Amino acid sequence: MSMLVVITENVPPRLRGRLAVWLLEVRAGVYIGDTSARMRAMIWTHIDRLAEDGNVVMAWATNTESGFEFQTYGANRRIPVDLDGLRLVSFLPLKNQ
């Protein structure tokens, strides 16, 4: 079991309701819980199937050097980047600039 955080933006209400079945919604679109890897994979399957045009980030505790891992769904200015085994986030420029 490990701590899991899911943050959603612009996702359909049916996904938010589904996430609320397994995780606690502590703020609008922010869900936390303590889940197994199998449960985390099942939750991600629902995200992938139901998020539509929204975007989601899922982060969980691991025993890696950073202490966590994450994955994303949908379009966002923040893009995960792997740098020598360390996961970082790169920002895309604003389209108006």
Into which percent range does the helicity of residues fall? 10-25%
Write down the overall geometry: globular
Q: What oligomeric assembly is this protein in?
A: single chain
**Rounded radius of gyration (Å):** 14 Å
SS summary, helix count: 2
Largest sheet: 5 strands, antiparallel
* Structural class determined from secondary elements: alpha+beta
Instruction: Give helix and strand order, one letter per element, not per position.
Output: EHEEHEEEE
Rounded average pLDDT: 92
Proportion of beta-strand residues: 35-45%
Spatial ordering of strands, largest sheet:
2-3-1-4-5
| Poorly predicted runs | none
Report how far the terminal alpha carbons are from each other. 44 Å
Total beta strands: 7
Describe the structure in your own words.
This protein has helices spanning 13-22, 37-50; strands at 2-9, 24-27, 30-35, 55-61, 68-73, 78-83, 86-91. The protein has 97 residues and is an alpha+beta fold. A hairpin with a 2-residue loop joins strand 2 (24-27) and strand 3 (30-35). Helix 1 runs antiparallel to helix 2. The model has no long low-confidence stretch (mean pLDDT 92).
